[in-house]
Amino acid sequence: MWNRLVKRWRERLRRFDASERGAAAVEFALLAPPFLLILGVIMETGLMMFTEYTLQSAVQDSSRLVRTGQAQSTPLSAAQFKTKICGTAGVIIDCSNKVTVYVRSDANFATLKTNLPNFLTIGGAVGTTPAGPNCYNPGQPSQPAAVVATYDWYFNMWGMSFLGNIAGNTARRLVGFAIFQNEPYPSAGATAC
Question: What is the torsional sign of CA 69, 74, 75, 76?
């Protein structure tokens, strides 16, 4: 009896070894996780880039108010100017709580370049809700000005840290910016930073 049982198990093992049933399932189990990970990274990268493009577009559209003097003559407050940016960018992101807007003007482009902070330092500390703009000075007619908006994108997919630039590479600070010279519009008072 024991020999018959051993013989039966050997026969089953030989059939199992020769069988190719289930090979597709095993191959799928080996290849699906890396494939799905790569697909997820591609999708998140695309969404992140689209968000940055939307933020850049919102800054370009809203900075026209500063360039033409409408922000100065109305006058728009920092919160109202941020609301203009959020009108476009808020379609995709939580603009009111997570976007920081920085508007600065100086006497010339060299001074503006010197005084303009690195975009990684514009905004709240990582993981906090920005309280509001660090600076809001749209400037006077014919002065150079810069408008910068930042948004912190936290990665959802594993393996995205190679795109990170803040929070130990677990997030990326997206930025939209515009640097321009104000048009020679009729002057109205402006505040300094």
Answer: negative
Q: Which amino acid is at 145?
A: A
Q: Give the whole-angstrom CA distance, residue 193 versus residue 191.
A: 7
CA 12 – CA 107 distance, rounded (Å)? 87
pLDDT at 105 over 80: yes
Q: Which two tokens stand for residue 29?
A: 């189990």
Neighbours of 36 (CB within 10 A): 11
| pTM listed for this prediction | 0.79
Q: How far does the chain reach from its first CA to its final CA, in angstroms? A: 95
Bridge partners of 171, per DSSP, are 154, 166
Q: Max Cα separation, the chain? A: 107
Q: For the CA atoms of the chain, what is the radius of gyration?
A: 28
Please check whether residue 74 is in contact with residue 185, taking contact to mean a CB–CB distance below 8 angstroms.
no
